[in-house]
Design a protein that fits this description.
The chain is of the alpha+beta class and 135 residues long. The chain has 2 helices and 6 strands. It has a single domain, classed as 2-Layer Sandwich (TATA-Binding Protein), CATH 3.30.310.
Length: 135
């Protein structure tokens, strides 16, 4: 297991947002699949890296330094009525360009999660073994 270090600068803004229920559920499923360790989600279309842990999701520009550009925090899934309802969270901006990044990020992050989930499913099928039963 390796350790990655990311740097957080001063908070510039904090806004409340909603994450679609399906996206939130997928994040939690992938996190559980990794047994509670952090999940690294490459967002190739934007050249960003998302890092999911138990408390937040941080986003780092893959071409830049190790500074966190924005973070999604304080998820409140308990406030939703059903599992498909959106989940309220706070987005924290750490750079002046974070608001512009956020315009595409939620949808591109969802696409990257779907691709990562698909890869894990394919890998799980490959590991499956068929055992012949004796007659």
């Amino acid at each position: 297991m390796s350790e990655e270090v990311f740097y957080r600068t001063q908070e510039l803004a904090r806004l409340q947002r909603q994450l679609p229920g399906a996206t939130y559920n997928l994040v939690r499923r992938l996190f559980r699949r990794m047994a509670g360790d952090g999940v690294f989600v490459p967002i190739r279309t934007m050249q960003y890296l998302a890092v999911v842990d138990d408390d937040e999701i941080i986003f780092v520009d893959g071409a830049g330094n190790r500074s966190i550009e924005l973070a999604w925090q304080n998820f409140r899934p308990q406030a939703r009525g059903t599992l498909t309802d959106p989940v309220v969270y706070e987005v924290v901006y750490y750079t002046s360009g974070a608001a512009q990044t956020m315009v595409r990020l939620q949808e591109e992050f969802r696409r990257s999660l779907v691709e990562l989930d698909r890869r894990y499913a394919v890998a799980a099928v490959r590991r499956a073994q068929i055992i012949k039963l004796s007659r």
